[in-house]
């Protein structure tokens, strides 16, 4: 860019010189590009990636937020590894923080305190790292919600949904291992809960726990092991999956909203090079900036308050970071007394039931695209997004899932809800238990009805226009409100969506109707029985005149 | 027979009971004397103060606690609670209670410092109990490190490691300790108000209590080096913050970036 503009501003008496300069620099660029391309064939990749089109919609940038916060995590995390020592050897702290002076603690804890108080900029980087981790997983969460509610997981993108969900689980694992590293009271209590969770698994629990901790909890191995996972194994897998995820995004092309000129065969937006890359670069710094501001002004995980881990004290308000909250909530909501004695052994179901429910939830989210594809029998490729209202059953299922998660999540903070709203903690737990069951049911029914109502409204507007607020008196004395028709561009949005029909039960080659088919037809009926058909062109033609 | 009878007659039928009663009185009294000498200081309050306190007590407290501190169905006996307890409960506004509830709520004290002192003197004059601690134990110049460790082990499970408070059962709660006067912290440890256990001087020596106060005053006076504490409530506050303000800001920015100019 600058090489082209400099000659224009160069002094007038030397035109020949400037043109020769231009040709020499462009010749150099050409030669360099050619040199590299001949040896790497990179032009194909640049063409493919550089011409990838990104449509403009705010919700398409949520995945980017996750990506950028991951970059922030990598940068700050690398800094932290220079100073963190993942050892549980006992030392006496003698750093700058007065209320911990002379206290015995592990090297891990003391090195984290040194990062916080004695390494220049250490506390800032630590806090940015932690805030970025919280932002990372939250961004993945809303990115997934966006994908789900717009139906962007449909063919051909099912596998990328699976990869993305695995990334989410990896991020949870990264978060939890990181939370446990400083070996402060909070992280030790968190590990104790995980230890209890593992030991609650029937038969194998104790063995797994001893394997993980290298003996009885807490042992002297766990921090070192978690550190290997946290900085080596998990980030490596995460990076590979992330690369795969992005390659798939390029291969599949980006989805877009339906609109005039935006069809399933094209993508309307700006190409990566140069427009989008510039925008994205700027956006990276915006995300980094927001996270850095949080790290600067807001304390996160003040390990100096928690002190070194010691199995006896547990602080009030001991909670996991938000993304593990749903699991903590499940343990709080399970009713007591789910155990009996048989053959001289106590058979406890207090842990295994929540674990199974959560596993079921995770697996259901993982395979949802395949379930929906099977129910709808839809084998077409989809590159246009659904507005959530145009897939009422899917949207309702999503809301039910969100409410189920929210009830578990809220339960993890039951004690703080109790103190801050002056309620009794038992009451909070019981309300949450009720919400866990009733919330999804009510949420499902209400959402489905709301979606259908919104579709009806869209239909009404597409056909009759919107109310203009202008009241006209006709010669006969009748008053009417003038309805203003929507313009073509607006209408497109209202009418362009897929109309599904419930699957018909058809006999197979042997002339039989199998139970599986019956079930599938039943599911399909449940999915599509209540539906509002999109307005057809014919109806629009007749629209105003009836 | 006769000898036996005479032997039996030699002792009064109630002699055994009387002996046990005397024994108990000696051991119990001795114990009370011993344990109360550690805390109960000599009552220096003048008789006029006590009389003043008696009047205040009869007018404001007796309906629940009884005219002779013996307690009623509505309130416990105050015999043996000591001046420390009165100073804490009245001085923090918990007593007189505004209403019955899961626990007495803190509010603006209803009595002046002098009135509180008079009430405390009156209650202490009727039976011995823990006294208001000496100022030397409240100066906050003890060992913060020892205090922090004691606090984590003994107090943090209810009050949270940073003294931010926490939930108990049935709507009761451990209050936040920020902004609580050193004297009230000490009295609470000695008397165990409401659901709090008593930390007597054998459990936590007066010096230990001083260290705990030192730690609490240290974290009160030294704000978190990491910036605003978000109530020191831990991961829940952090999660709420990142979702509402962190992600909220970022999503608002994405909307702004992709907005079309009008």
TrEMBL record, chain A:
Query: Is rRNA-binding one of the keywords?
Result: no
Cofactors: heme
Reactions catalysed, as given in the entry = a quinol + 2 Fe(III)-[cytochrome c](out) = a quinone + 2 Fe(II)-[cytochrome c](out) + 2 H(+)(out)
Report the domain of life of the source organism.
Bacteria
PROSITE patterns linked? CYTB_NTER
Query: Which key words are in the record?
Result: Membrane, Transmembrane, Transmembrane helix
Transmembrane region(s): 65-84, 130-149, 161-181, 227-251, 283-304, 347-371, 391-409, 429-447
Q: Where is this region: Disordered?
A: 1-26
Membrane among the record's keywords? yes
The record, for InterPro entries, names:
Cyt_b/b6_N, Cytb/b6-like_sf, Di-haem_cyt_TM
EC identifiers of the protein:
7.1.1.8
* Name of the protein in question: Cytochrome bc1 complex cytochrome b subunit
- What organism is recorded for this protein? Agreia bicolorata
From TrEMBL, chain B:
Write out the catalysed reaction: a quinol + 2 Fe(III)-[cytochrome c](out) = a quinone + 2 Fe(II)-[cytochrome c](out) + 2 H(+)(out)
Task: Give its E.C. classification number.
Answer: 7.1.1.8
Q: What class of enzyme is it?
A: translocase
Pfam families referenced in this protein's UniProt entry, alphabetically: Cytochrom_C, Cytochrome_CBB3
Q: Which InterPro entries match?
A: bc1_cytC-su, Cyt_c-like_dom, Cyt_c-like_dom_sf, Cytochrome_c_Oxidase_Subunit
Question: GO terms for CC?
Answer: plasma membrane
Q: Give a short account of its post-translational modification.
A: Binds 2 heme c groups covalently per subunit.
Q: Please name the GO terms that the record assigns under molecular function.
A: heme binding; iron ion binding; quinol-cytochrome-c reductase activity
Protein's membrane topology: Multi-pass membrane protein
Keyword Ribosomal protein in the entry? The reply is no
Annotated residues that bind heme c 1 are located at: 61, 64-65
Binding-site list for heme c 2: 155, 158-159
Q: Which residues form the Cytochrome c domain?
A: 48-127, 142-220
Subcellular localization: Cell membrane
Q: Which UniProt keywords apply?
A: Cell membrane, Electron transport, Heme, Iron, Membrane, Metal-binding, Repeat, Respiratory chain, Translocase, Transmembrane, Transmembrane helix, Transport
* PROSITE patterns per UniProt: CYTC
Query: Please, which domain of life does this record's source organism belong to?
Result: Bacteria
Q: How does it assemble?
A: The cytochrome bc1 complex is composed of a cytochrome b (QcrB), the Rieske iron-sulfur protein (QcrA) and a diheme cytochrome c (QcrC) subunit.
* UniProt name for this protein: Cytochrome bc1 complex cytochrome c subunit
Q: What is the lineage of its organism?
A: Bacteria, Bacillati, Actinomycetota, Actinomycetes, Micrococcales
